[in-house]
Design goal:
203 residues, mainly beta, Porin, 8-stranded antiparallel β-barrel, 1 helix, 13% helix, elongated
Length: 203
């Protein structure tokens, strides 16, 4: 009985020491990150079939972007991206209007190789797209509604120095909305693909 008790106590002690080591290791990782990217935003828009004769399309956009990241655990983080894009509205290749889009997006990311020189990740989250200063030539009553949707993400961080890294990132944003043209509402799915390249700093 004494041997069993000694064995159990020894096992508990080893597990406690191991847990303490893990907790200390988890406490050592840097929890905060800031990143600057150049983004290529490519809408894969689908306009209402009632507007198919106009052959409407949205132009692509290249913008700077800032994102903030917080690591809840060594392998799990949350990322908030901040940026504004401008898109021309084209009909048969000619610009007939424009809109600005503010699409704050929050994702939760999993980093299976966190801390390594090469650290890939995948993520998913939510997006709220806010169009503003939308205009369409010759139409006074023109509006694009706000939309709420989901986002999927994948990318990789490549360590340059201890706290500095190079980043490649891809996001797909589900943004289904509606437009109002001269008092009539039509369906518009923006659904952009967002390609990013940049640098980040962890602290």
């Amino acid at each position: 009985m004494k041997k069993r008790m000694s064995g159990v106590l020894g096992l508990v002690l080893v597990l406690a020491m191991g847990l303490a080591t893990v907790v200390r290791a988890e406490d050592d990782y840097k929890k905060y990150g800031v990143r600057v990217r150049a983004l290529y935003v490519m809408p894969s828009e689908t306009f209402d079939s009632a507007l198919s004769g106009s052959a409407l399309k949205l132009s692509d956009s290249i913008i700077p972007e800032l994102d903030l990241e917080y690591f809840f655990l060594k392998n799990v983080s949350a990322e908030l991206i901040l940026g504004v894009t401008k898109h021309d509205i084209k009909s048969k290749g000619l610009a007939v209007g424009s809109t600005w889009l503010l699409p704050p997006t929050l994702t939760v990311k999993y980093h299976p190789l966190a801390g390594g020189s090469i650290s890939p990740y995948v993520g998913a989250g939510i997006n709220y797209t806010i169009p503003f200063e939308s205009q369409f030539n010759g139409v006074s009553d023109f509006k694009i509604d706000n939309s709420f949707g989901w986002a999927a993400q994948a990318g990789v961080d490549l360590k340059i120095k201890e706290n500095l890294f190079f980043n490649l990132d891809y996001k797909y944003i589900n943004a289904d909305t509606k437009i109002t043209v001269a008092g009539t509402k039509y369906k518009l799915d923006l659904n952009p693909s967002v390609f990013g390249i940049g640098v980040g700093y962890r602290f």
